[in-house]
TrEMBL record, chain A:
Matching Pfam families: SoxD
Source taxon at top rank: Bacteria
GO biological process, one term: tetrahydrofolate metabolic process
Gene Ontology MF: a single term: sarcosine oxidase activity
EC number: 1.5.3.1
Organism: Mesorhizobium sangaii
Enzyme's top EC category: oxidoreductase
Swiss-Prot/TrEMBL keywords: Oxidoreductase
Name the UniProt record assigns to this protein: Sarcosine oxidase subunit delta
From TrEMBL, chain B:
Name under which the protein is recorded: Sarcosine oxidase gamma subunit
InterPro entries reported for this sequence: TrmE/GcvT-like
Superkingdom of origin organism: Bacteria
Length: 88, 179
């Protein structure tokens, strides 16, 4: 069992959170988006070994945030609230 | 045709339902006025004169009119009687929704309260947390203290389940079981 830090609530049980995908994987916009870009957006993941930047949501308070964590050690490096903008 | 209602336990009569075990008493609380406030909570405070912060998880609420914080932009306002606040959107930047019929409230007290909490959540009840919304007994709940007792608000549709869970927890605490 891990504790994840919600930017608003503080440390909470990992079961209260839901994974939202890689940070920075913004949905392509416009009519001229090539299929390779769509494929990249939909199917290709960086899957880093080490530091990863991910979107998470705390289901109980509804807070969306970017969490940086190490996929090897499971250490959480940071969690930052999203203010409605796309995560870079 | 199969009667699937037989699969479910009958919901208790909340007016008289009580779980009594050594060091633990659980009751359903009826008649509380509950409002959800969403949006600009500073504007809510200015317009209503009521608390715009609210207690967090296991925080202590005082009096017969108080608020529990659910999210960065959401409060549950609880009072014994109706509040002079209209439901709906307010131009100041917040919305008020009546939720009295949607949430069932339980109150738990006794010397075994800590053991009861430990069975419901892995959260440390001594560590402050801004939001009173948390997972308790495997479901989303709003949990805080009020006048020395623990208050739990849950979706009314989950109240019968939580009651069954609390009966089992009280029984296991009495038996000294680790389950």
């Amino acid at each position: 069992m891990q504790l994840f830090p919600c930017p608003f609530c503080g440390p909470r049980d990992e079961t209260e959170f839901h994974y939202g995908g890689d940070a920075g994987n913004a949905r392509p916009d416009g009519v001229d988006v090539p299929i390779e870009r769509w494929a990249d957006y939909l199917y290709l993941r960086t899957n880093p070994k080490g530091t990863a930047r991910e979107i998470w949501v705390h289901m109980n308070c509804g807070e969306f945030f970017v969490m940086e964590r190490d996929t090897v050690t499971h250490k959480v490096l940071s969690s930052t609230a999203l203010g409605g903008e796309h995560a870079a | 045709m199969r009667d699937l209602a037989e699969k479910w336990s009958v919901a208790p009569d909340w007016q008289s339902a009580v779980i009594a075990a050594p060091g633990l008493v659980v009751r359903a609380i009826a008649g509380l006025n509950q409002l959800l406030v969403s949006g600009d909570l500073d504007a809510w405070t200015r317009a209503s004169g009521l608390d715009g912060n609210g207690v967090g998880a296991f925080g202590t609420a005082q009096g017969d009119r108080y608020a529990a914080r659910l999210a960065r932009d959401r409060l549950l306002v609880v009072s014994n009687g109706p509040l002079p606040v209209a439901t709906g959107w307010h131009a100041e930047g917040f919305a008020v929704t009546a939720i009295s019929a949607g949430l069932q409230v339980f109150e738990v007290e006794g010397s075994a309260l800590d053991a009861f909490i430990a069975r419901g959540t892995t959260l440390d009840p001594r560590q402050a947390s801004a939001s009173a919304a948390l997972s308790f007994a495997g479901i989303s709940a709003i949990v805080y203290r009020h006048q020395g007792r623990l208050r739990i608000h849950v979706d009314r549709g989950l109240a019968a389940y939580l009651w069954t869970w609390m009966e089992t927890a009280a029984s296991n605490i009495t038996a000294g079981s680790g389950n």
